[in-house]
Amino acid sequence: MNKTTKMVIVLTVITGLSGAILSSWDSVTKPKIEYHKLQALKAAISDVLPSYDYYEEKDIDGKTIYIGKLNDSTQPTGIAFKVDGSGFQGNLSIMVGVDPSFTSITGIKVLEQIETPGLGTKIVEDPSNKTNPFWFPEQFVGVIFSPQINVVKNSIPQNSNEIQAISGATISSKAVVRILNEDIVTIKELYQSVN
Amino acid sequence: MAKTPTPLSKEFLKGLWNENPILRMLLGLCPTLAVTNSAINGLSMGLATTFALLCSSILISLLRKIIPSQVRIAGYIVIIATFVTVADKFLAAYLPEISKELGPYVPLIVVNCIILGRQEAFSSKNGVGRSIIDALGMGSGFILVLLVLGSIRELFGSATIFNLQILGDWFNPWMIMILPPGAFLTLGLLIGLGNWLNERKVKI
Fold it and tell me: Which chain A residue is nearest to residue B64, measuring alpha carbons?
């Protein structure tokens, strides 16, 4: 057998086997990976919506929204959806819950972020605040986002549309607010166009 | 070459100290610096890398007489990439938390020079048994350094090790330790310590 043929055969066999191993392993792990994704989604929705018994998934123009409902009523208790935008270093993905009339936030949860560890990551959890590590996301509960949410620095928010920035992570704090301001309006228009 | 074979124990131990991939050969520094912001991340990175190293070493040493030398690197990379992807999917399916923490650094094990280096320098020239011992030794050396580095950084950066509180509330965590500069500082000090110990050993 000449050298070239041998090279071709050996590489073909190796890559073929590799493909076979990977596709069979993928079929084992895929359902589990999907399951974890769904669990994470459910957990995020239950974090941002007030009481609900089940949620309905609805696609409007490619945006998925989750409508929380009670068993004995057709009226929604809240609406959740995912918003994205850029943070300090990379993409920020946030699950937001709002009340059915689209006036105030019922909760937010940051799903994905690559902010600076120890500073920007306080938008998720702040371990230096022993009494309430989640003070930053919890500020958004009840915030009225019309006409827009404002960020205040170094003082306690006075108005119902203000939140306090994290000291040392103003850009991350403002990024969260900017994404919410921009995207909630878009979702609101989408939602109201079909209801 | 009439050379008496190195005893197997020595083949294993060289990975821990004399030819430690990080402290002595300075290989695979990218994951070493990037993911060691906590002990658990360092340990899981070390284990994933060792898994890929061990499996690739076994397969490549079995195939060492079959793979033509002209295409050996291409062949090695495909084999390594296969095992790395298996490890990546395993973490995503069974340990989603760790998979999320390590992010893109698991798929990046493919280009870790420790793995390709060992295939080129060892598995392609030695039998399966010896290659396994070599891979385990190198893997253990890698895990050990990542674990020590991760523990030191977590201790000073978050006051914990493996999420267990070690230092009390009086300790104000040094943020820099869990940021990239902390990785460079700690690794530099560790390599320095390694060199110092080595010099002393020689004198004695």
Answer: A10
